[in-house]
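Below: protein 1.
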Amino acid sequence: MNWHHIISADQFDCDSIKELFELARNIKKNPGLFHKDLADKVMFELFYQASTRTRFSFDLAMKKLGGRVIGTENARIFSSATKGETLEDTILTITVGLEADIIVLRYDKVGGAKRASQITETPIINAGDGPGEHPTQALLDLFTIQEELGRLNDFTIAMIGDPYHSRTIHSLARLLTLYKNVEIILVSPDEIGLDDETKKYLHERGLKFSHSKNLGKTLKKVDVAYMTRIQEEYFHNPEIYKKVFGQYVLSSKLIPSNLKLIMHPLPRKGEILFEVDKDPRAAYFRQVNYGLYIRMALLKLISDKV
């Protein structure tokens, strides 16, 4: 594993994930040992789409490691992008002109992070590229599964909501191909089923997956429920959005006894009722905490190995 640009979940193997997870646990257990490790580093956050958890998580992760943070939460409005500046020129300004050590980039179109990585040696971390991928979210999701279930093999996961547009599903599904006896059941309306590219990736790597439209029956077959929001911003036809929105809502009565873990990358928009928050299996806010330590470990590994 080359700990440099983090563009896709494809880059990771079991050994690199193990290294990352072990470091994350060590940092969580002994945070004082790492509080000056990135004291001479500056991280730029360049977000062309709105973010709460990812941006705040990276911001806090860098500061807990002693580094400094410069950034914008909406580069489409609060940067020279409004004047027509290309992504490439923005990246070169930050890397060559301002000597950034790391860039965390969220772009509104697929392939933004890859484009940025092709013109600079400064590490680029993909914090989401439109409906493409979100590799650091997938890593924290996988870490959540391991910490909560105690294993990364031998389980079934339902991925529910919007598999077509969900970059978190696209990346997590890729990581799950690395482990044994894992099965995915995708629960969604037909209009937003899993995209062909991800299907091909899973098929080529032998991960068992299927599609269902019945949430209740599916939950009785799985260990993990991974809920996602129907992502209105990617629908070109508002009538289709209206048709598919609200079809799958997780309530306390719908949760069977066999279900061990409830996850969500957040934000939610009605697909998990607030009453579910009281269920000890609801881990979506713990996911955020796991994500802080995963991102601290990732920043340290990148800085140490560049």
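Below: protein 2.
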Amino acid sequence: MTLFRNTKLKPEIAVPLYQQIYDHLRIAIVEGQLRQGAKLPSTRALADELGVSRNTILNAYDQLAAEGYLEHIVRKGTFVTQFLPEDFMAPSQSVSRIEHVGRSHRLSKRTDAVLSAPRMPVPSYPPTKEIIALPVGIPALDAFPFDVWAKLMSRHAHGLHPSALNYAQLVGYRPLREAIAEHVIVTRHVNCTPEQVFIVAGTQGALHLTAQVLLNPGDSVWVEDPGYPNARNALLAAGARLVSVPVDGEGIMVDTGIARAPRARMAYVTPSHQFPLGMTLSLKRRFAILDWAKRANAYILEDDYDGEYRFDGHPLAALQGLDNHDSVIYMGTFSKVLFPALRLGYLIVPTALIDAFLAMRCSIGVGLPRLEQTVLAEFIADGHFTRHIRRMRTLYAERRSALLDAASDLPLELEAPHTGLHLIGWLAAGVNDRAAAKCAAEHGVDVVPVSKLAIEAMPRGGLVLGYGAVNQQEIEEGVRRLSAALRAVYE
């Protein structure tokens, strides 16, 4: 074959002979030495010409055919294809015209809904000289007992049995489920057994699993307004129709929810510490929403994201503990009480739903890594978890007081419930909180506008200021910068 006249194969190099032949033929095809439609020699003829085995030629031809350069036609031979892969990769005139108009990506309606919905901003943590974050929902990572955790992690990592490397238990590591059940029964007055506990990948994992089990596309779901946008997005991703329900001093306004969607399939609520405004759901409203769920055959998804952190008295009991009709699905996370990177949370589901949750869990995943679950189970069982929460309550109360003191001269009306990791600073009437947050960012301080967490227009703008992850010096510096930003906004 003339194409190989001046080319000598090199059997002594590491590149296999079939690869050398493949490379030579592909270059010849791409550069036009072998034209489209040209017939190649038979494998036997080319093998004789090059002094190689027929299998070597077959391998080269098969690779070129698999990549779209050659085609085998029965009883006729092997030909260069009429349309080369490069023809599809190179932009033609017609393709250029289409791309000039703009490509239309075909996304699901659920994806479009999530893309257009607000999301919680990722805070700039840890603080730097350029950015002082007052991050929402980030715990005191600087006060976490790393030494204890590291020792447990090291010991369990070195002692792993080969069985721990197999697929994990779908519902989670049994000792961890037992430890969680014991903890929430005592501290949150939840009614459950370990069999009802599912270990999930944090709050978002709990939301997505629950939505997949209980919601059909188009089902109505009550959501607090303002509320947690990432929860709304998980529900949107399941195709839910969100029903905005306002909150007041007693929490979610159940009567308004009933008026807007009496037959809603679910209600997502944060009764122990409403996000972001901070009130607790009153006892009257708790009984009202439980009664509605019973009559509407609906479910309540209770997000107890930081109910452990109450600074005046004992934490309030969970809504689930009042439920006598299997209406409440309780969810908790270790992101707020330990550290976000752990990515472990849990669901406590009614006994009647265990099989349904297990089946769906099986369809979307095969469990979570074993090592972290093992360490966390011992961390709880040995009392480290309870001691850590107790220390953090004291620390967060101190940081809350430090932020209140530092921010007392700001042109904000401060609202700071005795629970959680953040407070609200309300702006004067008519001041746009998104503009204020943008100006704050320009001054190097990261805060969240309340309106970004709302569906319906808020009567007044406000800023969410977190204090859990920042020490007193960082709080004071952040407030100093925020003061300068607000002066610019009010001028």
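The mean pLDDT is 87.
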